[in-house]
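Hi F.,

I've been meaning to write this up properly since the lab meeting, where we talked about keeping a consistent format for the predictions we share between groups. The idea is simple: the sequence comes first, exactly as it goes in, then the C-alpha cells exactly as they come out, then a line or two of notes. No screenshots and no reformatting. I'm using this chain as the first example so we have something concrete to point to.
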Amino acid sequence: MIPILEYGISCPPDWIYVPVKPDDDVESWVKEVGEGLIERGRAAGYEIDPEPLQADLRARAEDSRRRSPLYAFLLYPDGFDNALSTLEVDLIHPDESVPQITLDWLAETFSVHDFGPPEISRTDLPLGSAVRIRQNFAADADSPEHPGILLETLTYGSLPEGTESAVILLMSWTVPGIADAMEEAADSIARTLTVEATAP
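Output, unedited:
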C-alpha cells in the first residue's frame, strides 16, 4: 500500500489560518476571526472598526481560495484591520512534462525579472534541500485608474526526502519598509515545515 503523506506547518499566533477547502464556511470564519482580532487588539489597547477588518478578511480569503493552496495564513498584528502579509503553502507534483522536480527547475520556474534578477540561494531545511528566492513583482492594481503596486515576495521550494513532490512556501507583502522582518519570519516558518508518511 502507498502511504499517505501529511504535511504540516507551524506559524506564530498573529498569523491567522485561512479556510481554503471548497466546503469551508468563509462567512462564519470571517465573523469568528474578526471578533477574535478585535478582542486581541482591545487587550493591547487598540480599537478596530469591524467593517473594514471583515472586508479585508473576506477579500483575502477569496483571493487565496482561488489558488487552492494546501495552507494559507494572514498576518494581523495587534490593532491592524488589514493583513500585512500572506503566506501560502502548496505542493508541486511531477507529471509528463516535468517527470522529475529539481531545485534548478524550481528556481527557474518560480523566478521573475520584473525588477532585475531575483536573489536565489540554496539551503537545507529540516524538511529537505531547498531553494530560496527573494524577488519583487509588479502586481496589478485593483482598477485601471490606479497604478500597479510592488509585491515583495520570498519563496522556498523544498524537496522533502523520500518524496517526489516539492513543497512551495510563498510569503508576500506590499507594505514598504518591512522586508527584513518578513524575511526573518519566512525563514523561521519555513523551518517548521514537516511531512509525515502514515498508513492508508
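Notes:
The chain has one domain: 4-198.
The helical segments are 26-43, 50-67, 103-109, 179-190.

If this format works for you, I'll send the rest the same way.

G.
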